[in-house]
Specification:
The protein has one domain. The chain is built from six helices and no strands. It is globular, with a radius of gyration of 17 Å. The two termini are about 25 Å apart.
């Protein structure tokens, strides 16, 4: 039964595990840099993003079975990944500002909340834009993994 659930949701589960690993990198760097820079959370967020999403890009190629076929494909894939990560970074940073400065939430709660929202954005953009799954085939298959 667990094998069936895993097989039917392999890509999402693998993405979640890879994202959890990279989130660990992101959180460690974010809180460490915030600590050593005396609370400069936006600087920490930028550095943590660059490092963790570099690792994430490499691992996501395997998750989405989308290794570049040639240099042109690799450049297009990387460019799209970076563009969407910039949008994700803006979303995450904006949410941090909102949660910390407007709502007065703690740094930890704010980062956890913004990360959960950004996770959804990242999965959708990876699946349908960066590592292109054919949306028509996906809908026709009832949501099963399509490549």
């Amino acid at each position: 039964m667990l094998k069936k659930i895993y097989k039917e949701n392999k890509q999402f589960i693998d993405y979640s595990l890879v994202s959890l690993f990279c989130t660990g990198i992101l959180y460690f760097l974010y809180f460490f840099i915030t600590w050593i820079t005396d609370g400069r959370y936006l600087v920490a967020n930028f550095i943590a993003y660059v490092v963790s999403f570099t690792v994430l890009y490499v691992l996501d190629q395997k998750v989405f079975e989308a290794m570049p076929k040639n240099i042109k494909h690799a450049f297009g894939q990387l460019s799209t990944f970076v563009i969407f990560r910039v949008f994700g970074f803006i979303i995450d940073s904006s949410l941090l500002i909102l949660f910390i400065e407007q709502f007065g939430l703690s740094n930890f709660v704010s980062k956890l909340s913004s990360s959960m929202i950004t996770f959804i954005f990242n999965y959708v953009t990876n699946k349908f834009f960066v590592f292109k799954t054919d949306i028509y085939k996906l809908l026709k298959s009832g949501g099963k993994n399509v490549r």
